[in-house]
């Protein structure tokens, strides 16, 4: 018998998940464009400052050459180095801004958005399953990783293979999320054992770029839509019989 003690409505659970994922995506795109635009602007400023520094140094050298016997400092190179130091300081500060923007976009925007979306789907998945499994089945379910949860549901005649979303890819996203939360984003043996083949080696930092985040977010959204239909049919007694 399904566990109905939570008092949650299946559609409300689904609707919250989809609405929040869409909310994250609607925030992500303009925020991403902002960071891209700001980075490009400061990169252009950095290039202009570099070119201007060379012009200033060239003009200063030419000035000393043309000055000839005029009453000028006896050590023009010292003044030249002072000017160069001022220009290089400005370049360094501009470059630091560029690095900060790039870090904010890659290491904060993409990773934080991914962690939130995974959490939203995880909550939807667990809360929805509570509506269709018995208490004893639910206890077994909650002890499993996502991939094994899928296998367990299949053993109960709840199949998600028709979702057109590869569960192995979803499971890898869960594993990558765990690295971000528990390992500082560094690959560990548990991750490698869980996902099988990986281009990353142990102790390497796991990346999350915009392409990875967007693919993961839309995959979770599609899977949530499919699962809602499956769970709804199961709840209404129109999708096989749990054993």
Q: Count the helices. How many?
A: 7
Q: Spell out the helices and strands N to C.
A: HHHHHHH
Portion of residues in beta strands equals under 5%
The domain tally reads: 1
Radius of gyration: 28 Å
Termini separation comes to: 10 Å
Shape: elongated
Structural summary, described in words:
With 243 residues, the chain is mainly alpha-helical. It has one domain. The protein is 74% helix and 0% strand. The protein has seven helices and no strands. α1 packs antiparallel against α2 (76-129), α2 packs across α5 (167-182) and α2 packs parallel to α7. The relative contact order is 0.14.
Question: What tags apply to this protein structure?
Answer:
mainly alpha; elongated; 243 residues
How is this structure best summarized?
The protein is mainly α and 243 residues long. The chain is 74% helix and 0% strand.
Secondary structure elements and pairings:
Layout: H1 10-67, H2 76-129, H3 135-142, H4 146-155, H5 167-182, H6 189-195, H7 210-235
Helix pairs in contact: 1-2, 1-7, 2-5, 2-7
């Amino acid at each position: 018998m399904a566990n109905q003690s939570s008092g949650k409505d299946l559609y409300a659970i689904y609707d919250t998940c989809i609405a929040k994922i869409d909310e994250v995506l609607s925030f992500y795109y303009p925020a991403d464009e902002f960071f891209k635009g700001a980075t490009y602007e400061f990169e252009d400023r950095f290039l202009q400052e570099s070119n201007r520094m060379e012009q200033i140094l060239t003009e200063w050298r030419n000035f000393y050459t043309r000055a000839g016997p005029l009453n000028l400092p006896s050590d023009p190179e010292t003044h030249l180095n002072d000017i160069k130091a001022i220009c290089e300081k400005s370049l360094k500060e501009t470059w630091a801004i560029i690095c900060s923007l790039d870090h904010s976009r890659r290491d904060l925007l993409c990773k934080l958005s991914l962690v939130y979306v995974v959490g939203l789907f995880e909550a939807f998945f667990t809360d929805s399953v509570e509506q269709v499994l018995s208490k004893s089945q639910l206890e077994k379910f909650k002890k499993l990783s996502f991939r094994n949860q899928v296998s367990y549901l299949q053993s109960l005649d709840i199949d998600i293979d028709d979702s057109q979303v590869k569960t192995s890819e979803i499971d890898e996203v869960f594993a990558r999320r765990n690295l971000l939360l528990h390992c500082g984003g560094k690959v560990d043996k548990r991750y490698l054992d869980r996902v099988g083949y990986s281009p990353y080696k142990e102790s390497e930092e796991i990346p999350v770029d915009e392409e990875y985040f967007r693919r993961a977010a839309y995959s979770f959204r599609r899977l949530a839509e499919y699962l809602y239909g499956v769970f709804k049919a199961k709840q209404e007694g129109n999708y096989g019989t749990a054993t």
